[in-house]
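> tool_call: predict_assembly(chains=four)
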Amino acid sequence: MNTIKINLFGESHGEAIGVLIDGLAPGIKIDLDFMRAQLDKRRAKGAISTPRHEADEPELISGFFNGHTTGTPLCIMIRNSAQHSGDYAATKDIPRPAHADYSAEKKYLGYQDYRGGGHFSGRLTAPLVAAGAICMQILASKGIHIGSHILQVANINDQAFSDDVSTLAAEIAALDKLYFPVLNEATGVAMVAAIEEAAKAQDSVGGIIESAVIGLPAGIGEPFFDSVESVLAKLLFSVPAVKGVEFGLGFGFAGLKGSEANDPFIAEAGEIRTATNNNGGLNGGITNGMPLKLRTVIKPTPSIGQPQQSVNMKTAEPVQLSIKGRHDPAIIHRARVVQDSMIAIGIVDLMTARFGYLWQL
Amino acid sequence: MNTIKINLFGESHGEAIGVLIDGLAPGIKIDLDFMRAQLDKRRAKGAISTPRHEADEPELISGFFNGHTTGTPLCIMIRNSAQHSGDYAATKDIPRPAHADYSAEKKYLGYQDYRGGGHFSGRLTAPLVAAGAICMQILASKGIHIGSHILQVANINDQAFSDDVSTLAAEIAALDKLYFPVLNEATGVAMVAAIEEAAKAQDSVGGIIESAVIGLPAGIGEPFFDSVESVLAKLLFSVPAVKGVEFGLGFGFAGLKGSEANDPFIAEAGEIRTATNNNGGLNGGITNGMPLKLRTVIKPTPSIGQPQQSVNMKTAEPVQLSIKGRHDPAIIHRARVVQDSMIAIGIVDLMTARFGYLWQL
Amino acid sequence: MNTIKINLFGESHGEAIGVLIDGLAPGIKIDLDFMRAQLDKRRAKGAISTPRHEADEPELISGFFNGHTTGTPLCIMIRNSAQHSGDYAATKDIPRPAHADYSAEKKYLGYQDYRGGGHFSGRLTAPLVAAGAICMQILASKGIHIGSHILQVANINDQAFSDDVSTLAAEIAALDKLYFPVLNEATGVAMVAAIEEAAKAQDSVGGIIESAVIGLPAGIGEPFFDSVESVLAKLLFSVPAVKGVEFGLGFGFAGLKGSEANDPFIAEAGEIRTATNNNGGLNGGITNGMPLKLRTVIKPTPSIGQPQQSVNMKTAEPVQLSIKGRHDPAIIHRARVVQDSMIAIGIVDLMTARFGYLWQL
Amino acid sequence: MNTIKINLFGESHGEAIGVLIDGLAPGIKIDLDFMRAQLDKRRAKGAISTPRHEADEPELISGFFNGHTTGTPLCIMIRNSAQHSGDYAATKDIPRPAHADYSAEKKYLGYQDYRGGGHFSGRLTAPLVAAGAICMQILASKGIHIGSHILQVANINDQAFSDDVSTLAAEIAALDKLYFPVLNEATGVAMVAAIEEAAKAQDSVGGIIESAVIGLPAGIGEPFFDSVESVLAKLLFSVPAVKGVEFGLGFGFAGLKGSEANDPFIAEAGEIRTATNNNGGLNGGITNGMPLKLRTVIKPTPSIGQPQQSVNMKTAEPVQLSIKGRHDPAIIHRARVVQDSMIAIGIVDLMTARFGYLWQL
């Protein structure tokens, strides 16, 4: 991150979590209702989510005055309220498989706040959504829109985003209204059923989120080291559970020939564009004016109720671990708005690098 | 990049290309033969590569004295010698499909050096290999080894890296000796044949590179925003033609359940490790002591001899484009050492963040 | 700032002010009593300070668990409590001379929180003192001690720090106990009288603060652009009212010859040191093992009760301005601990760059 | 440095020295004659400088095409040609007083290139002047002009810059034509005589450089940590021999009252400005539209012919050191253009942060 400096703080069972954003222009009228609506998309709801329900009310501590950004560092804090810290003390030396417990123990030398995953809890993504809401608002005012849907859960696949820009715009607009974001409603029903089934089996599922950005001008990106892919991947790989990121055809490029993969250039009414969009709107790490397309894979939630094999970190004794607590059989529907948010932050950073922060107004 | 600051300069048909690295400790004895051997892996050879052959002799301009690093910024320069600049002038307004020509025109307002892809040429990866050689040397002296092989070309698949650490170590050591790096020799023969066939058809192929790192301690990584995945993906997505990066099972996580995907913890002789390594050695963005595993997809080389559809950027007239020049039907075998280099740079950065630069000695 | 990333947030009359510090090692036992004692040195007291008295109780929101740092970003918040916001509304379009009101209006386009100087209030230095307390504690545990005294107020001069290291150590230790920090007690009495006199005249005074650091090893500093002078000056010039920074003899070098200014090297019991310390412990931007010495000038507090000439920013009409509010006739005695704190932050950054963050333990 | 990333490389007696600048806009037509003229101001000439004369011809290795910047990293290299490396080998273990020899030995563990001061040689400022020339050219095209003069050498004082903006503009223009930059010609003659006298005595002199910038808009600066003072001081304190930096009245503020020091606001033809400019064009770390004024102190050149006391770093034996080589009795006249350059780099950085890099065009 360069022009937009963002840092995240807090632990799942501490007093509060929050985000500090520097680099916003003064004079942005913040739409708090939109911020709350975005946070609502991340909220746990129904049988497909954890029963831990948090109010997640964002408090704008600084950098905000009379309804607008001031241009000084903006701190958003969200208080923690629904902690059951007792759930974790008994198992603090037993690392949960596929969680950060063991690697954090090694990095933080045992001083990490282990309660509820501490700094590694998915809860930390709530302030990112609040920050992302401001960035999405900035982008929307410039005609740049971001949308994500669940392309896959378990082995159920949604249809991919349309290659037609106006259809894609409609798809993005429609997704904004959905808590469980899919393009094909029937697919969504099947996915929810699969998640509920996993929940009953005290198990969890993973999946793939597909995102698209429309309205980006050509010429954005700062290679060599700050290509659009680099900037977005750095942000997306910071999100817990993301284990892969691909742009355009992504891993689908592996089996293709150049003659199949290359996007021919054409002109429509004097405007240059590509006939296909296999490269996902990016050439050489720079936008080419076509919709930006990317996909991430979200691994299955590591916390499951089924007994698992672990080890006591102090004694190296084997332990049969059954995670009680309150957990999500799937996080992919909640992760979607986090993904939108990270993309928004990255794009505001890249646009600001090129146009200066007054561009945000 | 934080503790290791690296910047790349130069254009394909300019006087020279180079890299400036800051953050190296003083007193590292640089093995120039190893650096040359690494550059040799990136060199174009045979019918599977471009006929443009460069000497690629690295000159250490600064930060190097009496055979050792001095600790001041180290500049490595490689002169350009085999340019045929005339090849490009005629087509400077005709963007090559899937190349950076058009997006660079938009970003650089027409002032970019368009000859041979300029700053976007694959040639720019040569100085990265030179810088990476120093980082690989540092890591090797600590027992940390990196290796990559071609997992897929066209639709031919090599076997994956072994899950057994000592077998994996042997595989990495063997790859170091190969110009066309595969684990299964017969696979390699088939892949080379597929590339030669594409060359004859004036076409190109893509593929997948799998990398592994052994010897990493647990506890490395700087989440939230500098997770190991974030740091490595940022570097890898800067490499031309990389369109996807995944860690551990990567996109394979999408169809799995938590009970299938989670890596159980076990203890062997008092040492904690995981029974499987689906997470590729990373939990919560931090190393867990298991081998780090990742894969990138390399899209088919965009430069192909077959006629393609393009547009004159000045007139918006359609143009039938046949790229003459000298190009690679595949770059995946040459990209392998670039991938090793980028991983090495990222890991030295992360280790230095934790242990200070004197650790490098 | 590199290895220690610090950011400051909040406005004088907002809900809270705070600091976010990233880069601290896990496992530092934070001495909250020391932090409070440091904040107490910055507190307004007596006739020489503003009557606005704040509780300034630091809340450690994150990165702190069971009495120790966790190694994740540490957020310290201090609530604002004693605001009289009504004082400012009437004069928001009348910039106070030598304050940031006018330049902030230009930079923040009128969206700044103008109440009490907003983000530019001296209040913002309180969280810096809290952060600095942690850094001073780290340094003290390594035998590195920082002290500052008022070298000049109005035209009254304190004696300079001793050139003898053990005398200097005693001076630093003694200063820690003083609210009005001077080496010569009688000088302090005269300075306080001068400040009280200025207060009666509804005026204010400036002065010079001299600082020293003992116990620094030779070889710290990251030239070219992160010389010790560069790192410390960048931090010190961020403190409101600092208009000059000099190291060693500073501006006194202007009239000297090389033969007078150069510090000869000598050896004492096999240890190399310099016979004099005109360079203030720094050669080539790197510590040489001698005490680091620097001075800053603190301009007179801009807020004075006397009528001053200003202009209405909206109408460009001239205005006679009499600042009511509650202000400090001098801030130099309160600024001393801010200066100590900034130096401490800078030195922990430089030490961490060299030795890694585990050095902090 | 944020939007303009600059790094310096090379050693005094290596193959070349150079600078890498990233963040320049594409399409800046570089005036190479101006760059050479700037380098000429830094060149050693006459009896007041070292007899080591270098060609200092800048080579633009990258980022430059058809006479314009391309927008990719621009590398400027200057070959070393006139080295007498034999001068230094004999004394490599004898640190020269007030030089970086000893502190560099500690930092670089003996691996530094010790010849001619290596990376710490004043020669390293030549590439900074080349980079600064580009920045000054950008600024001049926006009506922003920078000038510096020698305010003091030994105990001889030049007149200070005028407080009248149009007089100041004329002074800055006139300084551009002088190799020995003073406002009062007679003063310059006396200063040169003092330097020649020091040269005869095998000694050296220090002094003060005063700089001014006109044409800056109000509202530039990025507090809290990137105040204009912070950004410029960080750069200026990186220049060898600078031991103090002050803005506006600087240390002169210490003896003043607020009523004397504050700059009243007035309006002239609807334009707001200050009646005086004691704050040197900066309030709260942000420009206020008045001329920016600063001064640095340049310590006497440490290399002098007179015998000096030193110590053998290997044996800790005392040594009488007589520096032979070829040295400058004063560097202040050569340092002037370095100071202009550093200020230019800092201001382009700050302007680009606010307006984006396209502003540079």
